[in-house]
Amino acid sequence: MSRPKIIGLTGSIGMGKSTVAAMFERAGIPIFDADAEVRAMQGPRGELIPAIEAAFPGSTGEKGVNREALGKLVFADKEKLARLEAIVHPAVGRKRAQFLEKHANAPLILFDIPLLFEGGGHVQVDHVVVVSAPAEVQRQRVLARPGMAPEKFEHVLGLQTPDAEKRELADYIIDTGVSLEETEEQVRALVETLIAPL
To answer: 31-67 burial, b for 16+ CB within 10 Å, e for fewer?
Structure first.
């Protein structure tokens, strides 16, 4: 049985990955957004709330996971972070399997996965697309975000595979250091390239 070809979309913080994912969606490609699934499962009455509260008492409330409280608990503690990931990752895997089933007849689907290389997910996709922009553009974008400080930005960068390395490992690169129209043109051209042989 043939299955859809899978694009793995990734990019470091501030590179414009969400914007590019929306462009793929506009081009008719079904998108699995790992972050959005996690937010839903950790939101009000989300299915992961009981397990997270049991593992990290006081980290949830009626609005779901208190991201700040949970972040303080796990951010600097690798063991606790691993415990949280052991709750979250299998649940995301189940959602991804359901998504694949639902879109089994699509020629092409896209997994939007921020930590594609860090989590080893790049080996499970057919094409790796990295969203990238010049470092100074990335820095400006990130530091313009509310609540973002240079130290926090550096910390996040330290947790991610460097952009240069991602570009080396990519099958395709979408440059977001240009206008939105030019970026969208790159996305449309890539979709045509990937769908043509199918």
So the answer is: bbbbeebbeebbeeebebbebbeebbeebbeeebbbe
Q: Where in the chain is the domain with CATH 3.40.50.300?
A: 1-30+108-198
Q: Selecting from 3.30.70.1350, 3.40.50.300, 3.80.10.10, 1.10.3720.10, what CATH number does the domain 1-30+108-198 have?
A: 3.40.50.300
**Whole-structure pTM value:** 0.83
- Local confidence pLDDT in tens for the 198 residues of the chain: 578 999 999 999 999 999 999 999 999 999 999 889 999 999 999 999 999 999 999 999 999 999 888 988 888 788 998 999 899 989 998 999 999 999 999 999 999 988 888 888 888 899 999 999 999 999 999 999 998 999 999 988 888 889 999 999 999 999 999 999 999 999 999 999 999 887
